[in-house]
């Protein structure tokens, strides 16, 4: 009788799990089945990195990850490292290249990564079943029974859940994995969208719609700087966006969910020193009594006019107002906001506008092979778990490395079962 390893979900984690399981179980009487609710594998992989797929990073450290319950994702990399992941691609003929520390396929096509998985699944003789949305999982004796929404069922000796999170409903990510995990007695933490934009009630937002400028951001939670980022800030009518905002969206969302005040402090001129700004402000203030410029004029040449408009409107003024109408102290205060502009964060983008789900299945319920401590033979990997990374290839790295760990461990377990004649 063939032993069966069932993998639920054909994203980056599930594909890697299936391929790794097949390779590790080579020569054994084992069938790997990949159950995917969609019509193809790797639908999300194909849209990553703006279609180029930033699949990993040369620097992977603990500070690149968040976890609602402070789980340690690095333990996964001790079992399957990001170096091993790069070799996985290179050994199969996918050349890689870097932009800084960010790694992409040399083709700069995310499709190359999805297509490699298609080829590997075929080569490793993984049986792929599409249109199989698994809705039920339970134990039947020593085996597992999986049932999809059409009533079709599969038996398996070990199961790897790799159903992703809640980001990308249109791609089949509706959080099914949480309910399946709970059916097997696992716990799911609070979940929320991350790597998304920030909403603010700043009155100047609309005036800066379309602005893209270099900025340094400090996220203040209860007056404490919790995160800091520098890079291109993108401002739209909806809120503050760009990778700089995505990177701090997790702590911002988590704080908002516990009712704490979240402030974003923006430095619109990070390359101008405090001293330079002070001198420049004094120079410009000297001209006010005589020239009486419009408020916007006082910001000229230091920051983007849209950013200036945001500061001016955010302070309850309008750009056309004449500088003499303001008390000199008020003017100084206004101009100083070039480097210290504070806005209140009121929310973040939703799952449709986010790249990952923060939170997930509690890691402390799993052993070092990502096997459920209280349910032998059940493994979990990828975004379904309570780990989310920053932008920069950290999420795909975690998805694929955790998938590899599950695949290898599930195959090893089956080998033991076979050798024990169980
Ligand atoms: C727009 C965008 C860009 C991104 N860019 C990057 C990037 O460049 N680099 C990076 O590292 N990360 C990026 N990410 C994040 C990264 O894509 C994900 O973290 C990663 O793909 C998660 O992989 P996964 O396999 O765990 O889950 P998913 O990719 O979500 O795969 C889960 C699979 O399970 C299937 N499924 C769900 N429920 C069921 C069910 N009940 N039965 C059967 N099948 C089911 C789904 O159809 C899906 O195929 C990006 C995300 C988005 C949305």
Please give a handful of descriptors for the protein shown.
422 residues, alpha+beta, FAD/NAD(P)-binding domain, 2 domains, six-stranded antiparallel β-sheet, five-stranded parallel β-sheet, elongated, binds flavin-adenine dinucleotide
CATH topology type of the largest domain: FAD/NAD(P)-binding domain
How far do the termini sit from each other? 11 Å
Give the strand order, joined by hyphens, for the main sheet. Answer: 13-18-17-14-15-16
Give the class from helix and strand content and strand pairing: alpha+beta
| Proportion of residues in helical segments | 25-40%
Please describe the biggest sheet, giving its number of strands, its sense, and whether it closes into a barrel.
Answer: 6 strands, antiparallel
- Please provide the count of β strands: 21
Number of domains: 2
User: What is the name of the CATH class of the largest domain?
Assistant: Alpha Beta
CATH architecture of the largest domain: 3-Layer(bba) Sandwich
Mean pLDDT: 96
State the shape.
elongated
Number of H- or I-type helical stretches: 11
> For this entry, what is the oligomeric state of its chains?
single chain
Bound molecules: flavin-adenine dinucleotide
